[in-house]
Amino acid sequence: MDNVAEVLFYEQPVPLNRVEHKDLRMKAVPNVKFAMNAHSVPLTGVEFGVAARDLLIVFAGTSVADAGPVALLGLRQNENLYVDANGQWAPDTYVPAFVRRYPFVLAEKPAGQEGDDFTVFLDERYEGFNATEGQRLFKEDGTDSELLANAVGFLGDFQQNVTHTKRFMEQLNKHDLLEPRTVQLQKEGKDGQQGKSINLNGMFVVNEAKLRELDEKTAQEFLREGMFGWIYAHLLSLTNIDRLARRLDVREQAEAAAGAVAN
């Protein structure tokens, strides 16, 4: 469950309200500019298989105990290398569900409020919301429109996947399968000189040697729960660091060219 105060992208999250939002409409916005500054986003285990083709999947946190899976999208702070200057996500590249659920989010209610433990929030600052264009969130009789019903269904599925992913993380920690990993990239300088290096800390990966040493009972459990598939998707995705590095090279070359033009 998300703490609304800590959720990426959402500038002005407010609880969805049938009275206050009864006339609200939502038009499609053909960009994901809201994700341009996210150099990583959380990922659920069920996404690993398809995400691993394009994205680098690691476990990020201040310690093993609080680490969770993320898709690493950039190598510099506040930069998503999969979103261009026009807010377009790289074509034919997986878009994490965390991004696709925007501008809606399920979040915990403040302590003391009645009702369910969580409620649907929306970002009132989302540029697609207005009173005249697009599809209504609520029908004239106050019931959910198809648009809203689909969005809420997506949020529910996402939350279930978050729960399964937490169980997955508990198992990785229980069997001490995660180890810290610092990603180091050495950038080439001009004229063969040594360039700057990039060090990324606070990341963890599965130790494959320890994975192979699991006892038979645990291995059967992992197999039955589909955990091996998730683990090997994560391990296979680690080679995508090369793709990220190439994306950064292209971005830096464009910046250098723009700087030369400006001067």
Describe the protein in words.
The protein is α+β, with helices and mostly antiparallel strands and 263 residues long. The chain is 32% helix and 22% strand. The chain has 7 helices and 11 strands. Strands 3-5-4-11-10 form a 5-stranded antiparallel β-sheet. The chain has a 3-stranded antiparallel β-sheet with strand order 1-7-6, with helices on one face. A 3-stranded antiparallel β-sheet has the order 8-2-9, with no helix packed on it. The longest helix has 29 residues, at 146-174. It is flat and about 60 Å long. The chain starts with 12 loop residues before the first strand and ends with a helix. Mean pLDDT is 90; it is low at 1-6.
Topology:
Elements: E1 13-15, E2 25-26, E3 40-42, H1 48-51, E4 56-60, E5 68-72, H2 97-100, E6 104-108, E7 118-123, E8 129-130, E9 135-136, H3 146-174, E10 178-188, E11 194-206, H4 208-212, H5 216-224, H6 227-237, H7 241-262
Antiparallel strand pairs: 1-7, 2-8, 2-9, 3-5, 4-5, 4-11, 6-7, 10-11
The number of helices is 7
Low-confidence stretches: 1-6
Q: Cα distance, first to last residue?
A: 48 Å
Report Rg: 21 Å
The number of E-state strands comes to: 11
Q: Write down the overall geometry.
A: flat
Query: Which class of secondary structure composition applies to the elements?
Result: alpha+beta
Mean pLDDT: 90
What strand line-up does the widest sheet have?
3-5-4-11-10
- Strand % is 15-25%
SSE string: EEEHEEHEEEEHEEHHHH
Main beta-sheet annotation: 5 strands, antiparallel
